Amino acid sequence: MKIISWNVNGIRSAGSKGLLDQLAKWDADIICFQETKATEDQVAEVLFGSGYNVIAHSAEKKGYSGTALISKLEPLSYKIGVGIADHDGEGRLIVAEFPEYYVATAYVPNSKGDLSRIPNRKAWDAAIADILKDYDLKKPVIYCGDLNVAHKPIDLANPKSNYNRTPGYTQTEIDGFDNFLNNGFVDSWRNRHPEEVKYSWWSMRSGARSRNIGWRLDYYLVSERLMSRVVMTDILNDEYGSDHCPVYLEIN
To answer: What is the mean pLDDT of each run of 10 residues along the chain (252 residues)?
Structure first.
């Protein structure tokens, strides 16, 4: 089972840059998108002819946020939303049930440049942890997406200057990530690549990507009992079309 997760920074923009060709090349079983910036109908239009079953969850605000999950196999069931009004209006979470596991994809809220959204972000992390723990009681969970946090100093190019100053690398956000790891989930890529420096997001300013001044913000957190089935996990730095690159998980 091959899974791709990608913050496309606008699925219509990605569509104009050859998204359908990328999907055909990857031939993944499940693909999760974040920051689609599109309505459900617009997502379906971009993906028309891809051959995938499409689930989309859009924000109330046009051209903002949004997630989508597409799959070759139609899910047994799916659910959208978190149960928190502030977030459910932003199209940030889809959980799809497949025969052997759940796949949850999220576009986690940014804490904002002035960190004013930290309380909102803290509530999100706590709510998602509870939701995923409940799902994990039924069958294993794969939680993927743009989680908007660099977990360790190795996960961003300039940790000292960003710590507790920049959204995505505050202690509150790190603690929220730790809570997942303390409740039965594993950062699959870091588990398999404990010392490797690799990023999945780069600022669009100052040639950050060409200089590899980046952050690892995109993850697969998997139930501990699934790790033995992980064949491969990767960050696809050679794929373009967004300020993020896709991340990959293969399980048997």
So the answer is: 98 97 97 98 96 96 96 97 83 97 97 95 94 96 98 98 98 98 97 98 93 97 98 97 98 96
| 240 annotated active-site | no
Sign of the C-alpha dihedral, residues 120, 13, 105, 142? negative
61: closest CA among 78, 79, 41, 37? 37
Nearest-angstrom CA–CA distance, 105 and 144? 5
pLDDT of residue 230: 98
Task: Please give the pLDDT value at position 205.
Answer: 87
**Straight-line distance from the first to the last Cα atom of the chain, in angstroms, rounded to the nearest whole number:** 6
Burial class (CB within 10 angstroms; exposed 0-12, middle 13-18, buried 19+) of 33: buried
What one-character DSSP code corresponds to residue 37?
A: -
Q: What are the domain boundaries of the chain?
A: 2-251
Whether 218 is catalytic: no
CB-based contact 252:9 (threshold 8 Å): no
Q: Give the three-state DSSP class for 161.
A: helix
Categorise residue 90: left if φ over 0, alpha if ψ from -120 to 50, beta otherwise.
Answer: alpha
pTM for the complete prediction? Answer: 0.96
Question: How far is 137 from 149, CA to CA, in rounded Å?
Answer: 26
Determine which one of 52, 101, 102, 107 is catalytic: 107
**Options 146, 155, 187, 218, the catalytic residue:** 146
Which CATH number is associated with domain 2-251? 3.60.10.10
Tokens of 245: 């690159």
